[in-house]
Amino acid sequence: MEEDLERLKQRLPLLEYLQQRHWTPCRTGPSQEFVGLCPLHPETRPSFYVNARKNLFYCHGCGRGGDLIRFVELSQHLSFRQSLAYLQQRMAAPNDARLLEQTAAFYQLQLHRHGEAIQYLVGRGLRDPALIEELGIGYAPGGSLHRHLAALGYSFESLWRAGLISRQGHDRFWRRILFPCREHGQIVNLYGRSVGNAFPHQLLPETVRHFSSVILVEGLFDLAVLWQAGFRNTTCAIGTHLTPPQLAQLGDPPGRCVYLAFDHDANQAGQRASLQLARQLQSAGLAARLVPLPPGHDPNSYFAAGATAADFTLCLERAQP
């Protein structure tokens, strides 16, 4: 986490980020201090100050201040970790995208060289080789990516900045199934699902702007089995909360109907998350419907247990607002 924060501070200064968001600063003197209208609340007299040298802001009008992460938390209404992921996605420059393409291609080759990875996919109900290739699913055995990319001419610093290796030179992904995340045809992040007990990485969902209705699921394996069954209007929240960029994706076009297909577990966590998301979607002008899956199942486990596309269609037909 400390390395991620350091990369953000080095690569995206607070003043630069604000100017990208059309904030108009005025220099207050010979120092690196600037002032302008506060982007966090309405005002007519400038009271929002930025110290470019310290990468800090403070508004004398609303009394809020902090660093870049804090500004994103306040302006985008995100948690600390969500803000970090949001900024990392924004900073995916073209050279980073090319690097991620090389990384994803390498992991795709590794998938068929490691039986444990194929068995893991089969165990999760994912058996269609064409779909696995279409989704770009790969496998990171660990310990080999650094050498491979270095042989292609990538420097240690570029691999570290992209988050692919640690400062000690170790691969970030070890024994993980890899899903590339694309936006506008470009890889912006990688999601690594551990075949053991490690915590997965995060990413944004695939866009579904061509569909008038969308099925929203929690995890990428839920998405994969639904795509395999023919439900290509499925996208993935990667968790139980939607960030503003994800909500914007779902709201384009406006008025779309979103089917929430989350797990129906005994502790009601999935149901509570669905209700919370439904309220969030409705407040954004979208129609939300809750899909009644059998008790104890999410879409992945439902299909892995033998459900068919017809079974899931019946669940969609029973969906309630």
Question: What can be said about this structure in brief?
Answer:
This protein has 321 residues and is of the alpha/beta class.
The sequence of SSEs as H and E is HHEEEEEHHHHHEHHEEEHEHEHEHH
> How do the strands line up in the largest sheet?
1-2-3-4-5
* Distance between the amino and carboxyl termini: 39 Å
CATH architecture of the largest domain: 3-Layer(aba) Sandwich
Radius of gyration: 22 Å
Number of helices: 14
Helix-strand makeup class? alpha/beta
Mean pLDDT: 82
Give start-end ranges of low-pLDDT stretches. 198-206
Count of discrete domains: 3
Percent helix range: 40-55%
General shape? flat
Q: What is the CATH domain class of the largest domain?
A: Alpha Beta
Note the beta-strand portion. 15-25%
What is the fold-level CATH name, i.e. the topology of the largest domain?
Answer: Dna Topoisomerase Vi A Subunit, Chain: A, domain 2
Note the main sheet.
5 strands, antiparallel
- The count of strands amounts to 12
What labels would you give this structure?
four-stranded parallel sheet; Dna Topoisomerase Vi A Subunit, Chain: A, domain 2; 16% strand; DNA primase DNAg catalytic core, N-terminal domain; 12 strands; five-stranded antiparallel sheet; alpha/beta; 321 residues; DNA Primase, Chain A
